[in-house]
Amino acid sequence: MTPAGYQALSEELKQRSSEERPRIIAAISEARAHGDLSENAEYHAAKEQQSLNEGRISELEDKLSRAEVIDVTKMSGNTIKFGATVTMVDEDTDEEKTYQIVGDVEADLKKGKISLSSPIARALIGKQVEDSVEVMAPGGSKSYEILEIKYI
């Protein structure tokens, strides 16, 4: 996991523990004050929310405790590995794409971050600039040429 991914998970854990948890507890207390719990929709909704929040807190604590943080800025080389930011061009459409290879937890295609376990990242690992890679995508096979590798 990159330091940025670790920081994002830490912030979500802090927000869920220090803001969401007390808000949900207050909602449960307020719903309890309305009387009969067996027919109290607000109470059941708040308990459901509490369950989901506590589950996510446990999940985040587990991921953070097992995380191996790798500082990408201290990496270098001319082959693609975890943390690399790769610029490549689609050989069919000449469309340029830039992706950073990150851990599963922090992958977000909209931000240009792809999971280390994704088909495209697996095809890129170990390759160098000017290499051609073929990726089996849901829409069929795609070929890319690697233009640039950076560690930022």
UniProtKB/TrEMBL annotation:
Residues 1-69 form the Transcription elongation factor GreA/GreB N-terminal domain. One of its GO terms (molecular function) is DNA binding. InterPro entries: GreA/GreB_C_sf, TF_GreA/GreB_CS, Tscrpt_elong_fac_GreA, Tscrpt_elong_fac_GreA/B, Tscrpt_elong_fac_GreA/B_C, Tscrpt_elong_fac_GreA/B_fam, Tscrpt_elong_fac_GreA/B_N, Tscrpt_elong_fac_GreA/B_N_sf. Residues 11-20 have a biased composition (Basic and acidic residues). Residues 78-151 form the Transcription elongation factor GreA/GreB C-terminal domain. Keywords: DNA-binding, Elongation factor, Protein biosynthesis, Transcription, Transcription regulation. It comes from the Bacteria. Residues 1-20 are annotated as: Disordered. It holds the Pfam family GreA_GreB. One of its GO terms (biological process) is DNA-templated transcription elongation. Necessary for efficient RNA polymerase transcription elongation past template-encoded arresting sites. The arresting sites in DNA have the property of trapping a certain fraction of elongating RNA polymerases that pass through, resulting in locked ternary complexes. Cleavage of the nascent transcript by cleavage factors such as GreA or GreB allows the resumption of elongation from the new 3'terminus. GreA releases sequences of 2 to 3 nucleotides. Belongs to the GreA/GreB family. NCBIfam families: greA, PRK00226.1-2, PRK00226.1-4, PRK00226.1-5. This is Transcription elongation factor GreA. It comes from Cohaesibacter marisflavi.
